[in-house]
Amino acid sequence: MDHRVRIRLSASLSGQSYRAPGTVVCLSLFGCRVRSKHVFHKNEFVGVLIHVRDCEHPVYISCAEVRWSEGPELGLQFINVELADRRRLSEVIRAVQTAAKHKKLL
Q1: pLDDT tens digits, one per residue of 12-60
Q2: Total domain count for the chain?
């Protein structure tokens, strides 16, 4: 099951000849939605660093494919993620879900 969470994390996306800042606005274990001023094209491959608050190192996605791009937003499918980074993604998603459940109980 693809658990998606709404979130706001800064990110860096890099291609063969550029590095572009962005903001992850929706995240799952399999991909994310990003806002960026850089123009991306469908089927383009990028590397992604997601800067997680209170973490010393960013989560590194060595290969993600642009599945769609519309204006300042794009959807990425994660193609290659090391196990340690996948675990960290899972922890981030679980923390956001737990915080959201806690808010509903208040």
Answers
A1: 999 989 999 999 999 999 999 999 999 999 999 999 999 998 878 899 9
A2: 1
Give, in degrees to the nearest 5, the angle at Cα 103 between 59 and 73: 45
| Residue 15, both tokens | 């291609």
Domain range enclosing 27: 5-105
Spacing of C-alpha 25 from chain mean position? 8
CATH number for the domain harbouring residue 35: 2.40.10.220
Q: Please give the Cα distance from 8 to 5 (Å, whole number).
A: 10
Q: What whole-number distance in Å separates Cα of residue 42 and Cα of residue 21?
A: 18
Phi, psi of 20, deg, nearest 5: -130, 135
Question: At 103, is the secondary structure helix, strand, or coil?
Answer: helix
Q: Token digits for 45?
A: 């491959």
pLDDT at position 10: 96
- pTM beyond 0.70: yes
